[in-house]
């Protein structure tokens, strides 16, 4: 009996980890990279180590909480989508009340971490929490939910500037805009994976809104992202290393367009995942520029 109970507990914990997407950390990286861009630029290459720890922990906790509340909101849709039908809530391995309790624990943990920030950053943290919690419900009513997700995923940028400098300058909002455009790029690719299922069940996305022009619109959004990042670099007085990072990112963007050329779901998913390298390339350019410029 004890052995069975132990196995049951381990299986439940594994499902909780899947509910938080700890088995798929891509979302953590996509949330973390722009936050690190902002931390390094705000601190001119020397971010406070305590703030670095706070933001990394906050990213992991809020992304996990966001995944839980997202699956709770989608629990009646996920069973009908091939990619999501085996999620713990959709498959019935975790109950809705369990998911809400897990979400509350993660949200409280994130709040505990956020309390270490200054007043300006803490105020922004509450706005970011609101965006994260409401996104799974708002996306049912918006034809462009990817833009709302961009607000949520980029909110660490003004928070980082507020934490490091107590202000949110124009540079921070330009980086924020670049991130919104970037999120629209990769989340449209992600939505292309589920487009056929989403059409059947009435879920909205930019992949559906853009229709046959999806690849062209993605290319335009990629170009706008690169221009915004270039302008942000000039405003921050970043040099050659940063430009090299942005150019490397442009190379990853080109590869993504090649991957989605046939709109095959598996290739669209690969293109989405490849955006981790875009974020890494831009951060590497920032890091190297402050080290050697």
What's the short version?
The protein is mainly alpha-helical and 293 residues long. 77% of the residues lie in helices and 0% in strands.
How is the topology of this model organized?
Blueprint: H1 2-19, H2 26-42, H3 49-73, H4 96-114, H5 119-138, H6 145-154, H7 156-165, H8 170-193, H9 195-201, H10 206-210, H11 214-235, H12 240-259, H13 265-292
Overview of the structural elements:
With 293 residues, the chain is an all-alpha fold. It has one domain: Orthogonal Bundle (Tetracycline Repressor, domain 2), CATH 1.10.357. Helices cover 77% and strands 0% of the residues. It has helices at residues 2-19, 26-42, 49-73, 96-114, 119-138, 145-154, 156-165, 170-193, 195-201, 206-210, 214-235, 240-259, 265-292. Helix 2 runs antiparallel to helix 8 (170-193), helix 11 runs antiparallel to helix 12 (240-259) and helix 12 (240-259) runs antiparallel to helix 13 (265-292). The longest helix is centred in the last third of the chain and has 28 residues, at 265-292. It is globular, with a radius of gyration of 19 Å.
Q: Uncertain regions: pLDDT < 50 for 5+ in a row?
A: none
Total helix count? 13
Biggest pleated sheet: none
Note the overall shape: globular
CATH C-level name = Mainly Alpha
Give the CATH H-level superfamily.
UbiA prenyltransferase
- Report the portion of residues in β strands: under 5%
Number of strands: 0
CATH architecture: Orthogonal Bundle
Structural class: mainly alpha
In the CATH hierarchy, the third-tier topology is known as: Tetracycline Repressor, domain 2
Helix and strand run: HHHHHHHHHHHHH
Number of domains: 1
Percent helix = over 70%
> For the residues shown, what is the average pLDDT?
89
């Amino acid at each position: 009996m004890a052995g069975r109970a132990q196995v049951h507990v381990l299986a439940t914990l594994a499902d909780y980890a899947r509910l938080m997407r700890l088995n798929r950390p891509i979302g953590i990286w996509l949330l973390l990279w722009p936050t690190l861009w902002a931390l390094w630029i705000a601190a001119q290459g020397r971010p406070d180590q305590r703030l670095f720890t706070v933001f990394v922990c906050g990213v992991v906790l809020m992304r996990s909480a966001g995944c839980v509340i997202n699956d709770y909101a989608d629990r009646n849709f996920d069973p009908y989508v091939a990619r999501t039908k085996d999620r713990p809530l959709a498959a019935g391995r975790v109950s809705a009340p369990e998911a809400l309790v897990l979400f509350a624990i993660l949200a409280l943990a994130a709040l505990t971490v956020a309390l270490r920030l200054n007043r300006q950053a803490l105020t922004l943290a509450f706005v970011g929490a609101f965006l994260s919690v409401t996104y799974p419900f708002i996306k049912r009513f918006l034809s462009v939910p990817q833009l709302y997700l961009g607000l949520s995923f980029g909110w660490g940028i003004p928070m980082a500037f507020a934490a490091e400098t107590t202000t949110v300058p124009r540079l921070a909002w330009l980086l924020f805009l670049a991130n919104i455009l970037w999120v629209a790029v990769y989340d449209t690719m992600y939505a292309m994976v589920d487009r056929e299922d989403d059409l059947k069940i009435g879920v909205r996305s930019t992949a559906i809104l853009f229709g046959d022009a999806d690849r062209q619109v993605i290319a335009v959004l990629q170009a706008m992202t690169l221009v915004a990042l270039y302008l942000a670099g000039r405003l921050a007085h970043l040099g050659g290393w940063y430009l090299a990072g942005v150019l490397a990112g442009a190379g990853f963007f080109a590869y993504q367009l090649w991957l989605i050329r046939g709109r095959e779901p598996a290739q669209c998913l690969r293109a989405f995942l490849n955006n981790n390298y875009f974020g890494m390339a831009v951060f590497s350019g920032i890091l190297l520029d402050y080290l050697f410029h």
